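B., you asked whether I could sanity-check this one before it goes into the benchmark set. Here's the sequence:
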Amino acid sequence: MIRITPFYTRLAHILISLICLSYIAIVGRTLLAPLIFAFLFSLLLLPFAGFLERKFKMPRSLSSLVALLSLILGITGIVFILGTQLTALAQDWPAFKQQVLDGTADLQKWISVTFHVDSDDQINYISDSATKAVDTGTSIIGHTLLSVSSILLFLLFIFLYTFFILLHRRLLLRFIVSLFSEEHSVIVYDIVSQIQYIVKKYIVGLFLQMLIVTGLSCLAFYVIGVKYAFLLGLIMGIFNLIPYIGIVTALILAILITFATATTSHILFVLIAVVLIHLVDSNYIMPKIVGSKVKINTLIALLGLVVGEMIWGITGMFLSIPVIAIIKVIFDRVDGLKPWGMVLGEDDSHPESKAALHEIAEDEQKLGNEVNTV
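And here's what the prediction gave me:
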């Protein structure tokens, strides 16, 4: 006679497991956050490293190092371009400050006429606010310097973890397979190949999406006549990597910079341009390039962003979607966890075309062959 565990017992087990995992994630942030980034980057670089080993007969250590250097060069290039644009913006800081002061004076006159608030009271309030802002700004500078050193250390650990994961990937794969019985080895290899396929396609899709959004934004801001069109376009593309929240943050930054360097009409045109670009991105670019690789419904994606921000801040928001995608792959292939995989995915009323399914099957077969040769 088979005993069925009561629902409330299973629910208690799930809640306790979630609490324990959340606590481990919060306590182990310093270790786990760069390790997960390194895991994602290593999956992305694995085909390139394998190509170097097969084509040029490189040893695994050298191929892993070359793949890592290519990643470092790509990140350095993006940071360099962004840094040069921010340097140009810093040179115009006096004009930026004067524009803000002029705008504040106009706003002060409007408040005085509309709400009949005495100008002296407004000046006193602004002076008190400015004093507090200076005190706060001093502490922010200190936190910023500390954050820069923390980011550099964070990147160093990511690069080191990525190199060693690529170097010892065969050992890690054998370890994962040996954790399960031999009869489940096929399922384990299938899960590994699926995770590699999804992560690679997802990261590549995000990069293409960033390039397209950056290009559209730069073109729109250039046509409008915004001074820092390329900088604002780059900010739009980078912040767009964070679903839902990133576009709002980028819009606020674009409006602030436009306010300091252009007229009010430019702000209106920038707002319209950002809304149109977001509509194109959310209705065409995202579903075609990224959404077809990661089937996660919007509710779970939003919850993942909130939980990721609660646990790890901005880092958690970046990692939430790929981590959920990896968890969904595992849930879909374990019998007892399939209902959870179902709730994470989309409600597909229209199945994919045969051509798309055939293409995915071919990619999975190639990845399966790569995993077997690892």
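One thing to flag: The chain has 14 helices and no strands. Otherwise nothing jumped out at me.
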